[in-house]
Here is the input.
Amino acid sequence: MIDPRQGRRLRLGTLTSVLLGLALASVALAGTAYASGSLIHPVSGATTPAWTNGETVTVQYPQNFFCDTSVQASTPSGCEVGQDSNTGPVANADRSVLYVLVPLFANPVPAPMCAVASCPNHPLDIDLSRIAGALGVSPDAVSSVPLPAHSHILDGPAGGWWDTKVVAVTTQAAWAELAAGKSDAAMDALINTPNSGVSGEIPTNLYLFFNVVGR
Here is the structure.
């Protein structure tokens, strides 16, 4: 049986264009002022929205993020995009997946659930240098940039540690369709549709810890 997640993987040409957009968007934000250091002070009661199974839920972050430091990263947070982790925060081979939807266009509606470098118990910065060679951009230019604005899709209503994957959204129409669908099934349908404006999944070494606490 074919793993449905295989359809989410990007072909090389699409990967290049998507990551180039992500890199350039992050470079444009690099001058944005944000808190010193790389960690938002952990707030055990902090919450954000997320989408799963066609509805909006509330997720609570009881503790701070984890990034696998065996994967090299130039950020103070130790977090990067472009390579999967070698090990997770706990011994669990079947972790749930958080899909981070990153809009690569101006003024998305609805607004992203997290503004630039603002979400609780997330890293403030991310390293994109691992994919710089394929993009033809300087690794130094994208070695430490503010965490982009984003929204969340969950692969179910679980709790605990979530493996984070990036999904790039290039058009307002696609963003609105994701907001209407509110599910990984709707996301998968767009990923598997050529020229839909949605591409993924891009691995990271980042895990977030949260639980679904309300609808």
About this structure: The first strand starts at residue 47 and ends at 52. DSSP finds four helices and nine strands in the chain. Confidence is low (pLDDT under 50) at residues 1-17, 23-37. The longest helix spans residues 12-29.
